[in-house]
Amino acid sequence: MIKKISNIELDTDLFLLIKDNKKAGLDKLYECYGCTLYGLAIRAGHSQEYAEEIVKLTFFKVWNHIDLFKNQNNSMCIWVIQNLILTIKEFLSSKNISYHFKTDNFPDFSFEWIE
Asked: GO terms for biological process (predicted)?
């Protein structure tokens, strides 16, 4: 019999694994969100190199600030994407890249670079 796991149970399990500094938590975090974050980051970073760095920084941020998730009323997915957006902003600013953050078609968003 296949046990169906709800998003809340998955979020709770993932939260606990990361909070306990378990490698399985990082592996599961990457499995759940790696492709999504990379796809969003490549659109914002305009390059594979930037996207990879942004995703890596986002995973570090989530890992190091997992206690902040406990106080959120939303899903882990939303919280991880919020961290990605913040990381993109910080990354582009650190590279002195000017951008417009557009949310006209929310939930779709984009970072348009200003030349």
From this structure: DNA-templated transcription initiation
